[in-house]
Design a protein that fits this description.
Strands 1-5-6-4-2-3 form a six-stranded mixed β-sheet, covered by helices on one side. It has a two-stranded antiparallel sheet with strand order 7-8. Strands 9-10 form a two-stranded antiparallel sheet. Helices cover 40% and strands 9% of the residues. The protein has 354 residues and is α+β, with helices and mostly antiparallel strands.
């Protein structure tokens, strides 16, 4: 297996934290600046571009029998990782709701990939799932650092505890799945695809936990993270990119839904958290058109492409759209409902299908 190139991936993008760092409220600004400094230190320890991709890991024949191996640590509001172990696999819940939510979220993500796609943990070979909670003070983020999950408690003014949204946990762990499969370079369109993959599977984790169909789901990423005073519903909306928040302090959601509105920027590794709205919206349209549980058909196609070995590390949106159409036809046949739905979805957001 070729080497993977882990990247430092956060749920709250740097452009949003940068905006908050200039807030009039000194408490909000200080928390944002502290988070930016901490994130920058982690980011410099990771390569942000990929040289070679990782070979796809075939699922184990008995993947359905596999169980997660979870360990939750408490950083005690410090930054040393992993911190003190507070709950291991199979142990009873603790008196700390944050610990218990992290434990449950790791399990829910493991179960989606196992039950829907036959994958044994993040790397396909039973990788233990480690997480740290109560990281730093007023830390406004959650991240996958290539080895483990880390959750901040938020500043209480803009962001709440980052374990409250199970899709955030799924999002970050899905970065690990990408790391061990297509290993998409974290810049430009390939980086936006990397982010979109995590939003897709994060959303599917939440929908599976709630037993929701595509029609019933809210298609929001990070619902519940924003403090009550914030004018917004989530960090991102796959159903309607650009509408997740509109707040005097937080700013306006900048995500586009179509290629004609693609944002050209040097910030955030070429706008990886912004332009991910385009493939996000395509997946929503595909899943909504098909109906039923989105992880069963739409999610299956996205997983096939992510793990199939044909998605280049520097793939652009058009490469991905064409591969998903091909994968849909390979799995479900040409000319059927799935074929029509995926072609319609990509055409709607302005990307080619042939």
């Amino acid at each position: 297996m070729t080497a993977t190139s882990p990247v430092f991936c956060t749920i709250v993008p740097p452009h949003l934290l940068d905006h908050l760092s200039r807030a009039a409220d000194p408490v909000i600004a200080a928390a944002a600046r502290r988070t930016l400094v901490t994130d920058a230190a982690h980011r410099t320890a990771r390569r942000l571009t990929t040289v070679v991709g990782a070979a796809p890991v075939p699922p184990a024949a008995d993947a359905v029998a596999h169980k997660p191996k979870r360990t939750i640590h408490d950083a005690g509001h410090k930054t040393a990782l992993p911190g003190e172990k507070v709950r291991g696999e199979g142990e009873k819940p603790t008196g700390d709701a944050t610990v218990n939510r992290a434990y449950a979220g790791l399990g829910a993500t493991f179960e989606l990939f196992r039950d829907a796609y036959g994958r044994d943990s993040i790397n396909g070979s039973g990788l233990p799932l480690d997480a740290t909670v109560h990281y730093d003070r007023d830390y406004n983020n959650a991240f996958w650092n290539g080895d483990q999950m880390v959750f901040g408690d938020g500043d209480g003014k803009i962001f709440l505890d980052f374990t409250v949204a199970v899709d955030v946990i799924g999002h970050e762990l899905a970065h690990g799945v990408t790391q061990y499969t297509a290993n998409l370079a974290y810049f430009g369109q390939s980086g936006a695809l990397n982010e979109s993959m995590s939003d897709v599977f994060g959303a599917l984790v939440k929908q599976k936990v709630l037993g929701q169909t595509a029609e019933q789901a809210d298609w929001l990423i990070g619902a519940g993270l924003l403090a009550p005073e914030v004018q917004g519903v989530a960090l991102r909306s796959m159903k309607a990119p650009g509408t997740a928040y509109d707040d005097d302090v937080l700013g306006n959601d900048p995500q586009p839904a179509k290629m004609e509105d693609y944002v050209h920027t040097g910030a955030d590794n070429g706008g990886v958290h912004i332009n991910s709205g385009i493939p996000n919206h395509a997946f929503y349209l595909f899943a909504k058109e098909l109906g039923g549980h989105a992880w069963e058909r739409a999610g299956r196609v996205w997983y096939d492409v992510l793990t199939g070995g044909r998605l280049a590390v520097d793939a652009e949106f058009a490469d991905f759209s064409r591969l998903t159409v091909a994968a849909t036809r390979e799995r479900f046949g040409a000319g059927g409902a799935e074929d029509d739905a995926v072609v319609k979805a990509w055409s709607t957001v302005g990307l080619p299908t042939e």
